[in-house]
Structure formats: structure tokens, C-alpha cells
Design a protein that fits this description.
Helix content: 40-55%
Number of domains: 2
Structural class: alpha+beta
Shape: elongated
Number of helices: 17
Radius of gyration: 35 Å
Strand content: 15-25%
Length: about 475
């Protein structure tokens, strides 16, 4: 009898459709909605304050000179009557240290405060968006305009908007260059059409950067170009104040009317209106939790509070809070007390110590600098049977806004004589003068070899005051007596 065989049919697998994933997300233009509220007022205030300082400082005079001027050609930096020179590089280092510690402190306390209110990218984006809203209308009108066909009205609004953007960008670049070249001279050079190539290049470069970053790239700079967005998480902890959505209170979300009893309907306070998304300059949904794209501008807080007010709900569904406060239900007082934790106190103490030390150093700074350079061609020579001469070059820098009279003497050997130009020597304001100095010592007064000496340079006010303030500086050197 033949053995029965089981036949198993083979079914071909359905072809899997090819899937393509883009390496980069396609940019979706964000039409942010205008918002009003406490935090929006703070943003406007910071824009006004920062740009008043930026655009106004180059025009401010101080003692007959531009108050803030970084003269790179002459290597002199004038800041409100104080002259800094390349030898004062330490103060720039201290300024950078103070800025970094301030950023760490503000971030540890309340997240990206700098990004949300004072960052140049945020400030100029706000300015360009105000111009855009004034010309093209509110969010709905701008969306309709972008989606509509190209007609005379659309062409006029677009051209006019970009023209205003370019004017603001060029004025920003002009002001920036005005910090490095006297701005009044720049105005005259512009009116006389005799701009130099470097001034033209930097004005156009900075204007192009402002126009491109604030007009087109906007949130892309914050999301992809700014490194701060990437490492901010290491400065956060569970007691850092950040913009948060209270999911316990807001969920489950859903639309409803003002008369809806949310307890009966089983709804939270979030009406799912997406106002928080529409007002966000980076286009994120804060209800999904804290994201690196969030710049901490708190526009979503103002927008949500407006909706809560219309619905008759208490404000604060989106608010500044900490992770611990949301999880454990801390009151505002308990939350603020936990913000003042050891990490914050250490940051604050170190920051203030550096600020006070830097301020004291600038206040007590002697505006006189001296470099002693030995004449290498002739280290020492015997001028007669009883005297030895050493030759030096003293480079004296007057880092002051007024001229000084300088007296030079030397100590360290008995009867050490200073032979130089007629003293006192006058050095103009902000000038550097190289003075040849010959020192004469008696051979029988010291042993052969190298002897430590000290130049004492005393500078007094050259204005003829009856009791001038005397500035004194000491510089060490060596006097060689041949064997």
C-alpha cells in the first residue's frame, strides 16, 4: 500500500516596500503667534534694554573720546575713561570666567534664562518677527499669505519686509564696526563714499549674519548650531526651575465649553487648544516634557494662562517649576527654598569673589607699565678706572587718559647713578615711549658678577596740579660688573 505524503504549500513572502529616511528633518516654517503676558513684557523689556545699550554706546562720549572703543590698529581699548592695553589681557580672561560662571549659575537656578531673554539670536529674531507681524499681519494672515498665489499685494509685502530687514541688518553691522572704528568717522566716510575695504567687509558680513540668522534660520540656530542646547542637561538637576506642563492637572486633555463640568466629563484642565505650540518660537509641544529645543522664553506660559483665564480655570497649568515640585507637590516657598541648594551657593560665592577681586584689581590698577630691556650688544663696559656702565632700554607705557611726567631712579647698589635724557620726561596720554638709560656704578663698591637692582619709575600728573598724585612702579633687573 502506497505511503501517504503530506504536501506543504510554499507561499511566497510579500515584498517589503522600500523605506527611505531623510538624514535631516525637512524644515517646517514656524508662524509663531503673538502673545501677551508677564513674561512677554519681560522679553520686550530685555530687547529694548540690550539694543539701547548696543546701538547707543558707540555714540556716547567720555572725556572727549568715544566711551567704548576697541582700537585694534593702535592696540588700545577704551572703556569709560579706562585705557586697557594688550598687557591687560588678564582682564579679558576674568571677564570670560565671570560670564561662564554666570551662565552656569543662571542655568542651574532657572534653566535657559540667557537664551530666552538676552541671547542675540533670540533678541534679533524677536525684532525681525515684530517687523514681519507689522507688515504681513498676525499668524493666520501670514499663513494665508504664504499659501496664497503670488499677486501684487503679496509681492509688495514680501519686498517691503525684506527691505526693512536689510536696513536693520545693515545698521546693526554698522554699529558693530563702530565699536572698533570711531563711529562718527564711519558716518563721515559713508557720506563721502570713502569706506575702507575692511570696514565694508565687516559691515556686510555682520549684516548678512543678522539677516540670515534672524530672518531665515531662526530656531534652526538654537536647535542645530548652538552648542549650549546640547550640554545644558549637565547643568540641570531635579531642583532646577524650568518651563513645565503639569500633567497631573492637565490630563486627560480634550476640547470642551466653559460650561462643561470637567469632573463629570473626566477631563483635566488642558483644553487641547495647542496655543502653547502656536506661540512657541521653536515649534515644540511643551506637553511632551522638557526638550533640548526649548529656549525657556516662557511664551507658552503666557499663552496657556490666557486660555485658563477665558475658561475660568486657575493659571499655572504650564509654569516655572522643578521636577521634584511636580512629583512631590511642593509649595512655591518649599520649591524656592530647595533652589537655594549647596551647588547654587557655591556658584554664587565663587562668582562674587571673582567679581569683587576683578573690580578691586581694576580700581587699584596703576596706569603705568614698564618693560626693562637690557642692551644685548653691550652687557657691561668699564668707562674709566673707577666706573662700570650698563645700558638699558625702558619701554614706559602710559595707560591713562592724561599725560604724566616720569622720573627714573635705580636702587640696589651704592651710589648707583642714572644717566638718561633730561628728567622729568613727559609721556602723553595712552602713549608708549622707549627711553635709553645708562646706569653707572663704582667698581670698588661691589664685587664682580651680577647684582640685583630695581628701577623705580615715578609718574606725576603733567597738568600742573599743586599736589599731583604720584604713581610709582618697581621693575627688577640686573647690573653686571665684569671680573
Amino acid at each position: 500500500m502506497a505511503e501517504a505524503r503530506t504536501v506543504i504549500p510554499i507561499i511566497a513572502a510579500a515584498p517589503v516596500a522600500d523605506q527611505e529616511e531623510a538624514l535631516y528633518e525637512v524644515r517646517r516654517k514656524i508662524h509663531s503667534r503673538a502673545v501677551h503676558g508677564w513674561f512677554a513684557t519681560w522679553r520686550v523689556t530685555m530687547v529694548v534694554v540690550t539694543q539701547t545699550l548696543f546701538y547707543g554706546l558707540p555714540w556716547l562720549n567720555w572725556s572727549g573720546r568715544q566711551a567704548v572703543l576697541f582700537d585694534l590698529g593702535a592696540r588700545k581699548f577704551y572703556i569709560f575713561g579706562v585705557l586697557f592695553m594688550p598687557q591687560d589681557f588678564i582682564y579679558l580672561t576674568l571677564l570670560l570666567v565671570i560670564s561662564a560662571l554666570s551662565l552656569f549659575l543662571f542655568t542651574a537656578v532657572a534653566g535657559r534664562l540667557f537664551c530666552g531673554y538676552a541671547c542675540p539670536q533670540t533678541v534679533y529674531t524677536e525684532i525681525f518677527m515684530w517687523i514681519e507681524q507689522s507688515i504681513e499681519g498676525d499668524r493666520t494672515q501670514r499663513i494665508k499669505l504664504d499659501r496664497g498665489r503670488l499677486d501684487i499685494e503679496k509681492l509688495f509685502k514680501k519686498i517691503f519686509k525684506h527691505l526693512v530687514w536689510i536696513i536693520v541688518a545693515l545698521w546693526t553691522g554698522f554699529t558693530f564696526v563702530g565699536y572698533f572704528s570711531p563711529i562718527r568717522d564711519l558716518i563721515l566716510a559713508f557720506l563721502q563714499t570713502r569706506f575702507g575695504p575692511w570696514e565694508t567687509f565687516w559691515i556686510c558680513f555682520y549684516a548678512f549674519a543678522t539677516y540670515g540668522n534672524a530672518g531665515f534660520m531662526r530656531e534652526q540656530v538654537c536647535k542645530y548650531m548652538c552648542p549650549y542646547a546640547r550640554f545644558q542637561s549637565v547643568m540641570f538637576d531635579r531642583d532646577t526651575l524650568v518651563v513645565t506642563y503639569d500633567a497631573k492637572r492637565g490630563e486627560p486633555r480634550g476640547p470642551r465649553s466653559r460650561k462643561t463640568d470637567i469632573a463629570t466629563a473626566g477631563l483635566g484642565h488642558c483644553v487641547d487648544c495647542e496655543i502653547c505650540v502656536q506661540v512657541c518660537p521653536t515649534g515644540i509641544d511643551i506637553r511632551k516634557g522638557l526638550q533640548y529645543e526649548c529656549i525657556g522664553c516662557a511664551a507658552c506660559i503666557d499663552g496657556c494662562n490666557q486660555v485658563m483665564d477665558k475658561m475660568g480655570y486657575p493659571p499655572g497649568l504650564i509654569r516655572y517649576a522643578t521636577e521634584n515640585a511636580l512629583d512631590k507637590g511642593y509649595s512655591w516657598r518649599e520649591m524656592v527654598r530647595r533652589v537655594l541648594r549647596p551647588r547654587i551657593l557655591v556658584y554664587t560665592g565663587v562668582l562674587w569673589a571673582i567679581i569683587v577681586a576683578t573690580g578691586a584689581s581694576v580700581w587699584l590698577r596703576v596706569p603705568l607699565k614698564v618693560d626693562v630691556i637690557r642692551d644685548r650688544a653691550t652687557l657691561a663696559r668699564q668707562v674709566d678706572e673707577a666706573h662700570v656702565e650698563n645700558v638699558y632700554q625702558l619701554r614706559v607705557m602710559n595707560a591713562d587718559e592724561k599725560p604724566h611726567r616720569v622720573m627714573i631712579r635705580a636702587t640696589g647698589l651704592k651710589q648707583l647713578q642714572v644717566l638718561s635724557e633730561t628728567q622729568p620726561l613727559e609721556i602723553g596720554a595712552g602713549m608708549t615711549r622707549t627711553i635709553p638709560v645708562r646706569l653707572l656704578a663704582e667698581i670698588d663698591r661691589a664685587e664682580p658678577g651680577s647684582h640685583r637692582i630695581e628701577f623705580v619709575i615715578e609718574a606725576s600728573d603733567a597738568a600742573g596740579h599743586p599736589q599731583p598724585d604720584v604713581l610709582s612702579i618697581h621693575e627688577k633687573s640686573a647690573f653686571i660688573i665684569p671680573r
